[in-house]
Design goal:
Helix content: over 70%
Largest sheet: none
Shape: globular
Structural class: mainly alpha
Strand content: under 5%
Length: 99
């Protein structure tokens, strides 16, 4: 990994994944989502960070837009997670009734 990739990963974690995780945790707790399902969703987000970093490096405009959307809560966190980790769709769909 070069220094630029590490820096980009840090920025994605700080500006996108961190706030996204916080919002998801809050929504999952308020909705009373079963613990096992909540853990699956949290794991999906962790596994999705590398794809977020890759996309941010290839599409900086997307990264700025999604960071703003996450911070301003214009995009539901489950949509961002679904885009970052399509493999998480079953867990997200299972949690959707709780949102």
């Amino acid at each position: 990994m070069n220094l630029l990739t590490i820096l980009l990963a840090l920025l994605v974690q700080t500006l996108i994944a961190g706030p996204l995780q916080s919002e998801l945790n809050s929504r999952l707790a308020k909705a009373g989502v079963p613990a096992e399902l909540g853990a699956q969703i949290k794991s999906c987000l962790s596994r999705g960070v590398p794809s977020l970093v890759e996309r941010a490096s290839n599409e900086p405009g997307w990264a700025v837009g999604i960071a703003l959307d996450v911070w301003l809560k214009r995009t539901p966190p489950e949509r961002v997670l679904d885009q970052a980790s399509p493999n998480c769709r079953p867990a997200i769909d299972a949690a959707r009734p709780y949102f």
